[in-house]
Amino acid sequence: MPKIGMEPVRRLALVNAAISEIGHRGSLDVTVTQIAKRAGVSSALAHHYFGSKENILTAAMWRILAMLAADLRDAQHGKKTPIERLHAIVDASFSDRNFRPDVIAAWLAFYVSAQTSNDAHRLLKVYHRRLRSNLLHELRPLLAADAERVAETIAALIDGFYIRQALRTEAPDGKAAVVATKAFIDDLMKRETIS
Amino acid sequence: MPKIGMEPVRRLALVNAAISEIGHRGSLDVTVTQIAKRAGVSSALAHHYFGSKENILTAAMWRILAMLAADLRDAQHGKKTPIERLHAIVDASFSDRNFRPDVIAAWLAFYVSAQTSNDAHRLLKVYHRRLRSNLLHELRPLLAADAERVAETIAALIDGFYIRQALRTEAPDGKAAVVATKAFIDDLMKRETIS
Amino acid sequence: MPKIGMEPVRRLALVNAAISEIGHRGSLDVTVTQIAKRAGVSSALAHHYFGSKENILTAAMWRILAMLAADLRDAQHGKKTPIERLHAIVDASFSDRNFRPDVIAAWLAFYVSAQTSNDAHRLLKVYHRRLRSNLLHELRPLLAADAERVAETIAALIDGFYIRQALRTEAPDGKAAVVATKAFIDDLMKRETIS
Amino acid sequence: MPKIGMEPVRRLALVNAAISEIGHRGSLDVTVTQIAKRAGVSSALAHHYFGSKENILTAAMWRILAMLAADLRDAQHGKKTPIERLHAIVDASFSDRNFRPDVIAAWLAFYVSAQTSNDAHRLLKVYHRRLRSNLLHELRPLLAADAERVAETIAALIDGFYIRQALRTEAPDGKAAVVATKAFIDDLMKRETIS
DNA sequence: AATGAATGAGGATTCATTCAT
DNA sequence: GATGAATGAATCCTCATTCAT
After folding, report:
1. Residues of C with Cβ-Cβ distance to D26 under 8 angstroms
2. Chain A CB within 8 Å of residue B129 CB
3. Minimal CA–CA distance to A111: which of A56, A163, A72?
4. Coil, strand, or helix at residue A179?
5. CA D105, D111, D117, D120 torsion: positive or negative?
6. How many helices (H) and strands (E) would you count in chain D?
7. CA C33, C1' E16: Å apart?
8. Chains B and A make contact, 3+ CB pairs within 8 Å
9. Cβ contact (<8 Å) for B115 and A157?
10. CB distance from C182 to chain D under 8 Å?
């Protein structure tokens, strides 16, 4: 029973517990007590470290986005051509680590809370901007004028597969999403090449 | 003060009030009292007619889907070619009547509640199936083997534009969504024609 | 079991219960549950009618001051000379109805809460102004220049007897307070007459 | 970092912090954590030295009363006549050191807690007795039979000015309180001399 | 048909207090 | 001597739901 330096340990445990609990319940309607219990601590401790329930949830969202961002970076690393890097974005978005039922459920729940919470709204905006800028960076050399619209389309496709996933009772099918999204990209390129 | 035939009037008023209130608050965290007040009745009456809060919300979702279904039917009416009918689906999905901030917010909220509520889950499944079957009906003659995947992709695109809309602070941009989705469809056709 | 028009009944019961409970506990550290129980209702109902704990306590203070104001009016009624009216103010201030342990305890507690709560501060200010204006009205004809200072002194004397009462374990001794305060007033007048 | 003799240092720091904090917040609703933070130590240490929150508060009250007692002693020192010594009591009571907003607020708060806490009650009783005995010592030679009542009146006047001070938003006006109280005493003496 | 009255069951949050180090 | 870690107990407040009228 270490008695010092517990703060980072507890914070991480609570954030992970929050993500799990949100995924488990399928909504942001989780209680601090549920999260705390899952993390193996009292709800009072959760408040001690985070100050409020909203802070816990924001930290959870932050963590999900950070995981995705890290994966995106890793996936693009070493890729040479724009097409390869676009594919890498798709792969990372639907990787087993991110395209999990509980993460998807949390993701969706955060979209809802962005209607109300400034923190949630800001974090999701950051994700949007980052994804958009990543996509544009690869698309511009290939498409010129259409790059913006196509970036929006790819982003919508990714989010669309996420939200539709939320309705499946079976395990998420990342493979299918990857295939479909890449097909969209590849078709696009073929057309550009041809014309 | 007629004493008869109030039931349908009240039910409709409550359902509309529920949709408005959900849109207004941006989440399913609305109270029965808020809905009832908006409908101009007491919360007790809301329970009298619907039995429970969940039933009110389910009825609200049902109504949104019904509106969309009707629009789809209307939009496709009179259209001759498969392409025209596909375009009509897109037009209806992003029409001013359906692609409104409050409807989008409600839509999103229902996706979340589908994780928990059987009713919500079932209703959204119906919408999915219907959209999918509509799309397939037009795509099969054109694409043969790829029809299934493309149908999924178009559906994801539509849902993706909806969910991304939820983050905008400005008014929804249905036009842009229509343009992007139709561009996707048209590109697809061009490719098929070419090859 | 009357089922309509309960609101005023409940509100009054809750306010009285609040005063009793504050007196009983000797401080504003009473819970809504305690007050509600004493009033024979649930704490939820207390919130339903008052919205918040602070509102209940403010209403309680308001009532105490209203009772005192009414007594003051009654006591002065029919009194002819300024001296008689001054005596009446003193009599009312220390009457059995107002100079009760629970009212005194509540009074004191409100003075403390006036440091924090705007409502409490405002209400006590009103009481101060009213007492002062009452006193000045009688003192001006008698004392001219000194009236202001003497009014302050009499007011302080009244509040002083109240606060000191809070320390007694025996029943409040309104008589002694009346005697002492009137003696102060009478001495003053004698001096004025003599000089 | 001396390891010995910290106890008195810490105790004093905590008591002073308690007085400041009570004055700052305007009520006894201060947390041990707030007091400890102001004293620059952990709340656990506060408990280590005082055992409980109530003990801290009692010690704080004890200190306020001790300060006042010391001032009273000093003020009376060297004064020859009873009147001079009475004036000295008044001066000390409303001196800048004692008649400060935070001390007044703490004072008032202690009166409230005397309703509940035996310790607080006992301490305030001691103050009452001491003031009374001081006053009586000077008044007896001058007033004989009325001395008791007049002592009570002066004491009430002092407490009354204190409590009324609690409502002011401006700085305390010790001068005015001194003038009024001395005027009361002097009038009394004049009357005695005359009759 | 309609509602005011009423409540039980939570849920977020606070805080004095304890304990191991 | 000193503190970070941890919690149980309370407290305010909300809300879906029921019921008598």
Report:
1. 112, 115-116
2. no
3. A163
4. helix
5. positive
6. 9, 0
7. 21
8. yes
9. no
10. no
d(CA B92, CA B98): 8
DSSP string of C53-81? HHHHHHHHHHHHHHHHHHHHHHHHTT--S
Which of C103, C107, C122, C153 to mutate against chain D (most D CBs within 10 Å)? C153
- Tokens 């001194």 -> residue: D178
Q: Cα distance from B27 to chain A (closest Cα, Å)? A: 6
Determine the protein residue whose CA lies at the shortest distance from the C1' of E3. Answer: B42
Dist. CA A23–CA C118, nearest whole Å: 45
The DSSP line for D103-134 is HHHHHHHHHHHTTT-HHHHHHHHHHHHHHHHH
User: CB-based contact (8 Å) between B45 and chain A?
Assistant: no
Neighbours of D111 (CB within 10 A): 25
In Å, what is the separation between the CA of C120 and the C1' of E2? 40
Structure tokens at C81: 């000379």
Provide the Cα torsion D150, D156, D159, D165; round to 10°: -110
Separation in Å, CA A60 to CA A95, C57, D29: 19, 40, 34
Average pLDDT on C24-52 reads: 96
Q: Which residues of D touch C180 (CB under 8 A)?
A: 149, 152-153, 156
pLDDT at D32 over 60: yes
The dihedral of CA D10, D12, D14, D16: what is its sign?
negative
Q: Which has the closest alpha carbon to A106: A24, A32, A12, A165?
A: A24
What is the average per-residue pLDDT within D82-105? 92
Residue D1 has pLDDT above 60, yes or no: no
Model confidence pLDDT, tens digit, residues B40-90: 999 999 999 999 999 999 999 999 999 889 998 898 898 999 999 999 999
CA distances from C40 to C2, C9, C175 (A): 15, 12, 35
The confidence band for C193, taking pLDDT boundaries of 50, 70 and 90, is low
pLDDT at B97: 87
Q: How confident is residue B193, by pLDDT bands cut at 50, 70 and 90?
A: low
CA–CA separation, D62 and D50 (whole Å): 14
Residue C121: list chain D partners with CB under 8 A.
167
Given a contact cutoff of 8 angstroms between Cβ atoms, the answer to whether B185 and B87 are in contact is yes
Per-residue pLDDT, A90? 96
- Answer yes or no: is B130 CB < 7 A from strand F: no
What Rg do the C-alpha atoms of chain A give, in angstroms? 19
Transcribe C78-100 into DSSP letters.
Answer: T--SHHHHHHHHHHHHTSTTTS-
Q: Express each pLDDT in A75-106 by its tens digit.
A: 899 899 999 999 999 999 999 989 998 889 98
Cα B93 to Cα C101: distance, rounded to the nearest angstrom: 72
- State which residue has its Cα closest to the C1' atom of E21: A3
Quick one: pLDDT at residue B22?
A: 93
**Residue type for position B193:** T
**CB-CB neighbours of B52 under 10 Å:** 11
Determine the pLDDT at residue A2: 44
Residue C195 per-residue DSSP state: -
Residues of B (81-120) whose Cβ lies below 8 Å from A:
105, 108-109, 111-116
Q: Is the dihedral of CA A66, A67, A70, A72 positive or negative?
A: negative
Tell me which chains share at least 3 CB pairs under 8 Å with chain D: C
pLDDT-based confidence at B5, cuts 50/70/90?
Answer: confident
With helix as H, strand as E and coil as C, how does chain B read? Answer: CCCCCHHHHHHHHHHHHHHHHHHHHCCCCCCHHHHHHHHCCCHHHHHHHHCCHHHHHHHHHHHHHHHHHHHHHHHHCCCCCHHHHHHHHHHHHCCCCCCCHHHHHHHHHHHHHCCCCHHHHHHHHHHHHHHHHHHHHHHHHHHHHHHHHHHHHHHHHHHHHHHHHCCCCCCCCHHHHHHHHHHHHHHHHHHHHHC
